[in-house]
């Protein structure tokens, strides 16, 4: 009788295990600040509008302005497209939570969102690294710049950066999908982050945590190392220039890229280290806000910085604006 009872319990356990994948999750927004969601939504929405308009504007300029058909601006176009995907994968859903209380997200939809977020944040890091290498070649090997960074090379390294993200991030989906979820289906977040979803599981998530850390070190660590080496070599080359004007001009070509690096990696570092070392001292609401800034700040600021700091882009914008005014005044006459 005991054997039959144990066998029946095992069957029930197996049947229950198969039902532990929820049909949907509930994204709960920013925990502890539910009453302020409507106010928090305004800066989120404003930044999202600036990000979409700014990055679409950059893509338009780079597509139609012949003077911007160079490797530096092709990489910038890739960065703008990546930023559009990142912010559009997260902010519309966050605004639906803040404005309409639409918190439900399907299980598969959650995995797709997680997949896109992690792939394109990794690609953004890779593109910043490629742009640093572009500045290194432009300043240290100016005579060979066009020969080294051909359109074919640009396309290949851009594709390689995307495929790197796909190969490294795809296992996240399977590692998350295999888990049994018995701790409810409420995610205290505005989007489906890998570990936020995994923490709802009653299974062993150690593999997920270790793999996430390894991927972060591979992508972020390698890219930061290449950026550091590139700018070390750039600094040595700039310092060795005899003319003050030449040094100023060489350094000014890197200003916008340095700002983009700061806007991308500063919130990323805070988010990464606060999760691992400040989990009990930093309020959950602060974690969620920083996580959203981490995804929203670079897409918002990158087009603004490049429009202000890059003379060629600034000249193109002014030429278009002055041309539209001339056209308008001509039509009035």
Explain the overall architecture.
With 333 residues, this protein is mostly helical. The protein is 78% helix and 3% strand. Helix 3 (71-100) runs antiparallel to helix 4 (107-140). The chain is globular and about 65 Å long. The N and C termini lie far apart (100 Å). 32% of the residues are buried. Mean pLDDT is 87; it is low at 1-18 and 325-333.
Helix count from the secondary structure assignment? 11
How would you state the average pLDDT, rounded? Answer: 87
Report the biggest beta sheet as strand number plus sense, adding barrel if it closes: 3 strands, mixed
Report strand order across the widest sheet.
2-1-3
Number of strands: 3
Protein structure class: mainly alpha
Shape: globular
Distance between the termini: 100 Å
Give the topology string: H per helix, E per strand.
HEHHEHHHEHHHHH
Q: Which spans of ≥5 residues are poorly predicted at pLDDT below 50?
A: 1-18, 325-333
Radius of gyration: 24 Å
Strand content range: under 5%
């Amino acid at each position: 009788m005991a054997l039959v009872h144990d066998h029946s319990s095992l069957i029930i356990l197996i049947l229950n295990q198969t039902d532990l994948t929820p049909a949907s999750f509930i994204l709960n927004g920013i925990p502890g600040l539910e009453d302020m969601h409507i106010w928090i939504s305004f800066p989120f929405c404003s930044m999202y509008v600036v990000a979409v308009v700014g990055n679409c504007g950059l893509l338009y300029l780079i597509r139609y302005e012949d003077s911007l058909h160079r490797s530096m601006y092709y990489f910038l176009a890739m960065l703008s497209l990546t930023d559009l995907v990142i912010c559009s994968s997260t902010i519309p859903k966050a605004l639906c939570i803040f404005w309409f209380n639409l918190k439900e997200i399907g299980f598969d939809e959650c995995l797709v969102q997680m997949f896109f977020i992690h792939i394109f944040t990794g690609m953004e890091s890779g593109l910043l690294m490629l742009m640093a290498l572009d500045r290194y070649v432009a300043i240290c090997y100016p005579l060979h710049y066009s020969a080294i960074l051909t359109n074919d090379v640009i396309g290949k390294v851009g594709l390689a950066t995307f495929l790197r993200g796909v190969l490294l991030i795809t296992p996240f989906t399977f590692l998350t999908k295999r888990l049994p979820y018995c701790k409810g289906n409420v995610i205290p977040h505005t989007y489906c982050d890998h570990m936020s979803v995994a923490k709802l599981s009653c299974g062993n998530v150690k593999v997920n945590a270790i793999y996430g850390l390894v991927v972060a070190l591979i992508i972020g660590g390698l890219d930061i190392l290449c950026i550091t080496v590139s700018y070390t070599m750039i600094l040595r080359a700039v310092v060795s220039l005899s003319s003050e004007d030449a040094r100023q001009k060489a350094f000014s070509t890197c200003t916008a890229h340095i700002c983009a690096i700061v806007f991308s990696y500063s919130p990323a570092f805070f988010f990464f280290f606060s999760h691992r070392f400040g989990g009990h001292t930093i309020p959950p609401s602060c974690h969620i806000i920083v996580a959203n800034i981490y995804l929203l700040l670079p897409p918002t600021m990158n087009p603004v910085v490049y429009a202000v700091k890059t003379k060629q882009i600034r000249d193109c914008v002014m030429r278009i604006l002055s041309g539209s005014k001339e056209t308008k005044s001509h039509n009035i006459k």
